[in-house]
């Protein structure tokens, strides 16, 4: 993994879910080589509580665990969240079993035992997916890596990080409303989001955009106009 990709992972929170203490300790120590924020859980119930509180961008979970297993945990996450990346650790490799995992909307499965090569492959896949330019409309492309909008293949519009993250959030949930609570949880990590700060942020972003693509849904949040 090159240095640029390695640095990008440092600021991404990850949750490790594994019921065997010794194995979990080894995995967590390995993850700390890549990530500054590493959370850990012993089963699906504890994992879901940590997930709801810390909102990790990546989840690395075992499947067979006591109490609430990995399948049940993933189902609970996916009820309202299709965006968090989920890697599954499994000792099983038969086709039927793996197809069942894919049906849970997981992003990558890793056969046990976990090693650096397998982990690197999964993380590079994650980073590449998040770097791919996103088509907002036929004329407007969001380049995540360069943090800019491209209008009609020629005009370049630089974005601040929060502006890029907000547009990415709208695209990811283009068929629904991005609520005020979701915006605060995803974009205002360092301080409380006031209504004045949000309105000022939206006003400044709209002034940058060549197209009117942001619609306010009163008392709920924002959605894309496409």
TrEMBL record:
OmpR/PhoB-type domain boundaries: 132-226
PROSITE patterns reported for this sequence: OMPR_PHOB, RESPONSE_REGULATORY
Record keywords, A-Z: DNA-binding, Phosphoprotein, Transcription, Transcription regulation, Two-component regulatory system
Domain Response regulatory: 13-127
Gene Ontology, cellular component aspect: cytosol; protein-DNA complex
PTM sites of type 4-aspartylphosphate: 62
Keyword Nucleotidyltransferase: no
GO MF entries: phosphorelay response regulator activity; transcription cis-regulatory region binding
The keyword Disulfide bond is annotated on this UniProt entry: no
Pfam family, one: Response_reg
UniProt DNA-binding region: 132-226
GO biological process, one term: regulation of DNA-templated transcription
Protein name as it appears in the record: DNA-binding response regulator
Organism per entry: Malaciobacter mytili LMG 24559
